[in-house]
Design brief:
- The chain is mostly helical.
- The chain has a single domain, classed as Up-down Bundle (Four Helix Bundle (Hemerythrin (Met), subunit A)).
- It is about 70% helix and about 0% strand.
- The protein has eight helices and no strands.
- The chain has helices at about 5-15, 20-25, 30-50, 65-75, 85-90, 95, 110-140, 145-155.
- The longest helix has about 30 residues, at about 110-140.
- The model is unreliable at about 155-158 (pLDDT under 50).
């Protein structure tokens, strides 16, 4: 079964591999959209697997508001592991680079596309670091089956 994390990793790979096509086209919209999608799925995976007991955050799994998700995650972990301003910047690409309308933007700056990928990687890395901390606590405190299940659910070493 594919997880949010599996799909997020795939989206990030597509963003990176799309840079060459962006160079050829002189336009990087799909790069920034895939970077945004990757970050969104990394965040939703964390919320779903560690914060959503009893469906508490089901409504947050259908939003595209990365800033809101960053604030929720930061509150849950008790520290600022995600920068809400950076998440807002990346999150804006969901609509602005994807759909026609007043806010539509053609991304022609390669550096902006590279920055979007860097932000997605930064979000991924911060979440993976937090997951490793949670898994270490679960191992050290032996909280029982549910905790072991969360550790196994994320599977391979992060």
């Amino acid at each position: 079964m594919k997880t949010y994390r599996d799909i997020a990793e795939n989206d990030l790979l597509w963003a990176k591999s799309s840079m060459n096509i962006g160079d050829q086209m002189g336009q990087y919209n799909m790069v920034v959209v895939q970077a945004q999608q990757s970050a969104e799925k990394f965040m939703k995976g964390f919320i779903n697997d560690f914060m959503n007991e009893g469906g508490k955050h089901d409504k947050d799994l259908v939003t595209h508001n990365l800033r809101k998700m960053a604030l929720l995650i930061n509150e849950f972990v008790g520290e600022k592991i995600l920068n809400p301003i950076e998440c807002k910047y990346l999150g804006d690409w969901y609509f602005d680079a994807r759909y026609p309308g007043d806010n539509y933007t053609e991304v022609r700056d390669r550096e902006e596309a590279e920055y979007s990928i860097q932000l997605a990687e930064k979000i991924r890395d911060a979440l993976y670091e937090q997951i490793n901390k949670i898994n270490a606590q679960l191992i050290n405190h032996d909280k029982g089956y549910n905790s072991q299940q969360n550790q196994i659910q994320f599977g391979r070493e992060l």
